[in-house]
Design the sequence.
């Protein structure tokens, strides 16, 4: 029998297309559902979050300027890379307490959901845009535009499906995101960051933090350079905190209380429209 010691991975943060350790130097030992030590997980600090927001803001203009078709191609590429890591994702979910069947179904649903939203990338504008009737010699158009930097508070479970289900409809319209992964089941989050890193997604478009909600939520909801927050959870104290802090600079807040399911019930055009602004343009007739 070999006496070789296995190397326990330290799962780092994903900020600006890189994998830095938390500036605070803090980490926690992550245990499996059976209590076995499996990895180290960084605990993100307030400064890590500020760095992630700066990275997201820097990437925003380049990402929104890409064609909708190109963004759809990139989301489809994410699904392709996830397909290649199906076994790894399934094993990580199993370590965190899911049965093998539950894990396989969640991974498959996560990939399918990414493909679903990739298909919407160059189509949702057609349904969300309008030509408005006006009583003057003008054309009046309303078109959707991305909001900017969106903070995503992922649900505790399902950890992978919840993360992809919240992230995909937000970035496909041209937004950039800072994600706080599931606090109790964070193992898949940085593996997903590795997928993003190798999937043609420009650095800074998706930033993923692991850490505690109690520490980061006040900073996430009050940061003045965050345009919107997507919160999935039923904790009333957290909802109140997010709402009150976001009101200080009129952030848009969307609450999702229903856990994301493996079926098609959580796939919707309206999840995309939750994080766009509608811009109206007047243009004189004949010019």
Sequence:
């Amino acid at each position: 029998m070999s006496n070789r010691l296995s190397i326990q991975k330290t799962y780092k943060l994903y900020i600006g297309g890189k994998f830095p350790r938390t500036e605070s130097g803090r980490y926690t030992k992550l245990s499996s559902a059976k209590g076995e030590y499996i990895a180290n997980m960084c605990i993100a600090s307030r400064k890590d979050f500020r760095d992630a927001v700066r990275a997201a803001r820097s990437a925003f203009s380049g990402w929104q300027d890409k064609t909708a078709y190109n963004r759809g191609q990139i989301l489809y590429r994410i699904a392709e890379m996830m397909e290649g890591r199906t076994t790894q994702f399934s094993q990580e979910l199993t370590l965190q307490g899911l049965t093998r069947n539950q894990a396989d179904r969640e991974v498959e649903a996560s990939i399918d959901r990414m493909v679903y939203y990739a298909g919407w990338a160059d189509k949702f504008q057609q349904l969300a845009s309008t030509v408005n009737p006006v009583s003057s010699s003008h054309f009046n158009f309303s078109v959707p535009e991305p909001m900017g930097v969106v903070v995503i508070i992922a649900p505790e479970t399902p950890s992978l499906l919840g993360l992809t289900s919240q992230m995909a409809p937000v970035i496909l319209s041209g937004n950039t995101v800072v994600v706080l992964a599931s606090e109790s089941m964070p193992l898949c989050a940085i593996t997903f960051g590795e997928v993003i890193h190798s999937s043609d997604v420009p650095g800074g478009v998706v930033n993923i933090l692991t850490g505690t909600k109690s520490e980061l939520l006040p900073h996430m909801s009050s940061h003045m350079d965050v345009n919107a927050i997507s919160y999935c959870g039923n904790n009333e104290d957290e909802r109140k905190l997010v709402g009150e802090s976001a009101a200080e600079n009129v952030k848009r807040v969307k609450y999702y209380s229903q856990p994301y399911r493996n079926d098609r019930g959580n796939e919707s055009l309206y999840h995309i429209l939750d994080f766009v602004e509608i811009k109206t343009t007047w243009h004189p007739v004949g010019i």
About this structure: The first strand starts at residue 10 and ends at 11. Residues 10-284 form a domain with the Aldehyde Dehydrogenase; Chain A, domain 1 fold (CATH 3.40.605.10). The mean pLDDT is 92. The two ends are 82 Å apart (CA to CA).
